[in-house]
Amino acid sequence: MILNAAMSLDGKISTKNGRARISSPEDMERVQRLRASVNGIMVGINTLLTDDPSLRMKIETDGPPPARIVVDSRLRTPPGARLFSFPGKIIIGTTVGAPVARRKRLMDRAEIIAVGDGQVDLVTLLEELRDRDIRRVLLEGGGTLNWGMLESGLIDEIVVAVAPLVIGGRETITLFEGDGIEDMSQAYRLRPTGVERYGPDLVLTFKPRGAGR
């Protein structure tokens, strides 16, 4: 599981209206090469509803395109979302209690995997993906899904492009949202493993050590 994101210097991954392209063209090329190295690309439902990403490849690859995976506890994925406009496998991870009517309207467009009550069980979802030979996943989630994955110990690598921008805003989404921690002893420690420059952006790579380590 590789978390890839672009953020401003103040840690924002969008503007206050939810739409932003923060990466430079040079960094976007890097992201496309990274997408070509995985067999799954994952986003959360908030990212899907706000940005309507296609998650499609923009460079040619030898094999099939990566599966497009949406984590969507209540099956709010619109049948008209852009990701349905391009060929390739689409998987929606949801809960066992998701509305049946919503499941029916999406079943002919995507494979539905129901794991967990109330919230998607991320650990079980990744096990289900592994059973489908999706073993290298690029996480392009919003702050909520990013936090859930980190909290569950499911992220193997974090790659962040830091753009020379300041966005600001008390309510603007940051790289990690969720409940956060109460004390610095609970902070998730990271081991820096690389620094590169793509155009004006600094791309930082880390390996998570875990909470409080």
Total domain units: 2
Determine the strand fraction and express it as a percent band: 25-35%
Which sequence of strands runs across the widest sheet? Answer: 5-4-3-2-6-1-7-9-8
- The CATH superfamily name of the largest domain is Dihydrofolate Reductase, subunit A
Shape: globular
SS summary, helix count = 5
Rounded to the nearest angstrom, the distance between the terminal CA atoms is 20 Å
- Main beta-sheet annotation: 9 strands, mixed
Nearest-integer average pLDDT: 94
Low-confidence segments, ≥5 residues, pLDDT <50? Answer: none
For this structure, what is the CATH class of the largest domain?
Alpha Beta
How many distinct beta strands?
9
The SSE order reads EHEHEEHEHEHEEE
